[in-house]
Design a protein that fits this description.
The protein is α/β, with parallel strands linked by helices. The longest helix is centred in the last third of the chain and has 31 residues. Helices cover 41% and strands 11% of the residues. The protein has three domains: 152 residues, no CATH class; 310 residues, Alkaline Phosphatase, subunit A (3-Layer(aba) Sandwich), CATH 3.40.720.10; 75 residues. The relative contact order is 0.12. The structure holds zinc ion.
Length: 646
Amino acid sequence: MNQLSLVRRSPVIRAWPRQGQAAGPRSVCPEFLTGKRVIGFSIVVGLVAGVCELALQDARRRLIDGTALGALHLNQHAWWMVPLSDALILGVLGISAAVVARVFRARWPLAIGVAGICFAAAFSLLLVYRGLSNLAYATLALGLALQAAPGAIWLVRGRRRMARGGLAAMVCAGVVLSLLPGGRETTRVQAIEPARPGAPNVLLIVLDTVRAQSLNLGRGGRPTSPRLEALARQGTRFRQARTPAAWTLPAHAAMFTGRWAFELSTRLDQPLDDRQPTVAEYLTQHGYETAGFVANTMFGSTFFGLDRGFEHYEDVAITPVEFFRSSLLGRFLLKACLPGLAERDRPTSYFYRKDADEMNRDVLTWLDHRERERPFFAFLNYFDAHDPYIPPEGAPARFGPGPRDDHDVETLRDWHRIDKTRQSKRILRLARDRYEECVAAVDSEVGELLDELDQRGLLDQTVVIVTSDHGELIGEHGLFGHGQSLHSQVTRVPLLLVAPGRAPVGRIVTQPVSLTDLPATIVDLVGIENQSPFPGRSLARFWEPDSIKGGDEPMVLSETVDEEESDQPSLMPSRSLIMEGKVYLRGKDGLEQMYDLSGDPREKHDLTTNPRWAALLKRFREAMRRVDERALAEATAPTIAGNQTP
Ligand SMILES: [Zn+2]
């Protein structure tokens, strides 16, 4: 049956009054069709469509494809934002129909309105299935709407019937949601003891995607980080800090738990489960007031489990635009009608990115309204240096000549999807310049936040840790972005630790350290005397210059995690290890590289073929074999406990 005959045979068309025929009982414009009822109908259908959209997205996430774009967009506010967003959009349709009906003193606009509302609801649900053309979505939605409209009009007839129908549909969707397997439940953490008197606050700042190489900490060059440099002078700087994972989720999870990425559940489609304690959980239990603020609202969202243990967690922004675009229909309309509103997003973005200014406002609002009796632990993730490399509007252009024309601007905006290997040297230079402008902008914002803390008299009693989850490649080694490679541009991250009276001032630590040591360090610095549940060792071991002798240092490991989907656990993933002043990289294809840490920081001279280092290469292979064995045992071990997602 083709679409036209489907339309002709639709009950709505068959019920439509023919020319000269009075509107009878089968007419679509019966007496009971009033403007008020159509508006009520539009709101009920919007709410039902929103709940059904949530149920479909969640079912898809849990049963089919955990990394589906719409499913990734689910956040802690989705349960109310999505239905209200749909109700608002469909409500506008209902109001419009009522207004037109009143202007023309006719009821036909109301009948068309009901059909339009059915069409929009069907369209919004079809959007869950991605990949069709707009015409295909519209044709299918039209077919569904024409079939549904008579039933819809029947519903409109009685307000109670309409309310009951809407409620029943929402309850059904809720039951389906609750029956689906694999939900992540957040358990509230209770304090088991009050904080120690005089315990310091802890501020953990993660500058997402900021590589150590692009900061001017302790070296000449571009002034990308004057504020962090000033901060570093007040505390201890780690020159060879390494992230345990090459992308956001496992890197943050490792920083929170002190575990290696291979020990954690975090994957592209899997959140952090609750097998290992997090530093937020531990501090909440020990009387701290804990809060997390993430600008990376995708992998930082509650959906991915990084909120565990925090009493207060802000991921997605609650703004009118974000509210409107929380539903698939809202996002579709925004993109189609007002693309300018989504300008700061990546063109294919499905998540909102907060800028540093907004982050600071959120953090300060929380600080000003929190309980003052308890010390706080605040975790902040700034996302401004992540691509696209577009500095905030009005930021002065300090590095390089800037974009030459609109084409340059478009290239930067589309950075994540263009073929970067085909770009000219000028464009690569432009990208690096813009990236470092973004780094400078976030440095300035962090400085402003610290000023605000200082004005409130908080800095003297606060341990400030600044680091990054991973760096970025912008053409070095012919590579781009992060997540797929373990070169120093990705793994070497800034790490500053300022702890008045607790950590040395002006100390520079040159030994390699891993961010997996952060939980043990925080517990040590705040002086909780209970046994720390975190692996790793406190970085306080570096406070005495000659305290570290070679040989007993923990492993410094980095992993790509999820580099390529594979159901063969024996397939070698990419890992890198640091030992004896060298870094060893082993790719998933088995390709090995080895570089000198201090003499070749940009990793340009591979030492694997140099016979002088053959014995060290052998030791690296042996160490890596042990890591592989541990990781394989972890991957094949039966699940112990906790909420496991499929
Ligand atoms: Zn990241």
